[in-house]
Write a structure and sequence with these properties.
Strand content: over 45%
CATH architecture: Sandwich
Distance between the termini: 7 Å
CATH superfamily: Lipopolysaccharide (LPS) transport protein A like domain
Radius of gyration: 18 Å
Oligomer: single chain
Helix content: 10-25%
Shape: elongated
Order of helices and strands: HEEEEEEEEEEE
Number of domains: 1
Amino acid sequence: MSVTRILAVMAFVLVPSVSLSQGAQVAFGGIQQDTSAPVEIAADSLSVDQQDGTATYAGDVVIGQGEMRLAAPKVTVVYVAGEGRIDRLEATGGVTLVNGAEAAEANQAIYSIDAGTITMIGNVLLTQGQNALTAERMVVNLKTGTAEMSGRVRTLLQTGTGQ
């Protein structure tokens, strides 16, 4: 590969990293998620706290809703007071989110059911095929199938040249 071509490829990879440092919107999952679909949770244990209206699942927690899967060591389900319906899910301890052919990882995630958003926080890594994006925060809009990343966004785009 010539020096000119190497510099062109480097510019292509580095420019999005600089221009996206304040925030970037990307496609996520390629599908729109029905946030009213049933939520299925599997875990090693469950602890319910009637006082604060929460249920905490621990140990290899896997949550499924439609095509989406979320896995974490611990997930707390917060219910709407007096209504018995889920307000949000709070996943901690290292979270993996898979939607369609794409996957994201972060330290923690908050799934707000009514808003139809998943906010991933801390060391976010989004993979889309061979491309990867990192940031400190990513908000996934499940209704539109898009995500917004912020906090020092970095992008690695594969050019497919193979040389």
